[in-house]
Amino acid sequence: MRRRSVLVLEHMEKIANKVRVSGGGRCNFTNLNASSDNYVSCNPSFCKSALARFTPYDFIDMIEKHGIKYYEKEAGQLFCKGSSGEIISLFQKECSQAGVEIQRGCRIDSIKKKDRFIIATNYGVMESQSLVVAAGGLSYPKLGATEKGYGIARQFGLNVTPLRPALVPLVFKKKDLDHFGGLSGVSLKAAVSCGKVSFDGNILFTHRGLSGPAILQLSLYWERGMPITVNLMPEMDVYALFMAKRQSRMKIENLLAGYLPASFAKKWCGLCIQSKPVNRYSEKEFREIACKLQNWQIIPHGTEGYEKAEVTLGGIDTDELSSRTMEAKKAPGLYFVGEVVDVTGQLGGFNLQWAWSSGYAAGEYA
Ligand SMILES: Cc1cc2nc3c(=O)[nH]c(=O)nc-3n(C[C@H](O)[C@H](O)[C@H](O)COP(=O)(O)OP(=O)(O)OC[C@H]3O[C@@H](n4cnc5c(N)ncnc54)[C@H](O)[C@@H]3O)c2cc1C
């Protein structure tokens, strides 16, 4: 314990709104496999130091100390068995034991730095030796997101890398929407890729485009204009399947409906190939159709934006911060932690782990 006197300024009436809604209300609070490979940043190594000094197991120790029951959903993703409210209670208890005060409904009007930071708020003027900015990103404005963190960085002359919504559903272009908009609610297991990255997992058709875990992951790497490639039958040798069924008089869309949702198979076959009985195709056509099924290309129009993005990609340039302390090199005493920093995690508990680890790193020095 460093016995610092700590005051948290929160402009909303409720604290930790994003933790409350996280993981569908069960808070995917960490991922056992968290490493720098799971994060996107202009400096991919920046997060290593903080992640190594407060690991998923350190957070699990806290969870267990507070008797919170949890489970592993898949591949290291840990969720509360009860609700995300338990994590918020954990923080409230820890804060109260450490004498941390939380000022809710507190609007920050201005920040100045003389010997100390002077913060003008609707609760009056406050002074502090250190200022830790944990104001989050721009996503989900209705939960309290503001640009304040980036504004403070710019005020102190720090660079902010370009920002964009990520872990966000993608939106179809008009033509694709006309074709596939009617499939809203249909999901299938696929492998999606763009550029050099690819993810296996479910994709979900929405009334505006594509979502589901694999698409959300991909959105972290997708930039406007880039095509995405969808392997609709990733675990199959599709050509071998066609060859095995080559005597069948069944229409190809009905054969594919055994492996894909029937409504999608029908739509896709109607649009992408000439649908006829399986025994009427040549071997060459089988090869072409197999290739199309495993390389379906779409160029999305855009994303659903910050309203529906789980995170903001980009943030305070890591070159401006010490990776050990999170302190701004140009502004001693000023620290940035969590999502406001240019460190963005993949889906699966990595973003909260970054918030915990970077917060801990700053807490050791601020
Ligand atoms: C719907 C949804 C689900 C998610 N699920 C998960 C999940 O399961 N696992 C996971 O790892 N990540 C998840 N995330 C991402 C994760 O919640 C964030 O990355 C994480 O909360 C970032 O922590 P932070 O402390 O940096 O910022 P935040 O949690 O956003 O906290 C920032 C705080 O600053 C306050 N604030 C902002 N501006 C001001 C201002 N001007 N004055 C005073 N206070 C201000 C905000 O009200 C907020 O309380 C999810 C995000 C969303 C939107």
List keywords for this structure.
366 residues, alpha+beta, FAD/NAD(P)-binding domain, Elongation Factor Tu (Ef-tu), domain 3, 2 domains, seven-stranded antiparallel beta sheet, three-stranded antiparallel beta sheet, 12 helices, 21 strands, elongated, binds flavin-adenine dinucleotide
Task: Describe the model.
With 366 residues, this protein is α+β, with helices and mostly antiparallel strands. It folds into 2 domains: 7-164 and 312-363, FAD/NAD(P)-binding domain (3-Layer(bba) Sandwich); 170-303, Elongation Factor Tu (Ef-tu), domain 3 (Beta Barrel). 29% of the residues lie in helices and 22% in strands. The protein has helices at residues 17-21, 48-53, 56-65, 85-97, 148-155, 174-180, 213-219, 238-244, 252-256, 262-272, 283-294, 350-363; strands at residues 7-9, 28-31, 39-40, 70-72, 77-80, 101-103, 108-113, 117-121, 124-128, 131-133, 164-166, 170-171, 187-194, 197-205, 209-211, 228-231, 296-298, 302-303, 311-313, 334-336, 344-345. The strands form 7 sheets. A 7-stranded antiparallel sheet has the order 17-16-13-14-15-12-18. The protein has a 3-stranded antiparallel sheet with strand order 2-5-4. α8 runs antiparallel to α11 (283-294). The longest helix is centred in the last third of the chain and has 14 residues, at 350-363. The radius of gyration is 24 Å and the shape is elongated. The model has no long low-confidence stretch (mean pLDDT 97). The structure holds flavin-adenine dinucleotide. Residues 9-12, 17-19, 21-23, 27-28, 108, 134-136, 139-140, 144, 146, 148, 310-311, 338-340, 349-352, 355 line the site of flavin-adenine dinucleotide.
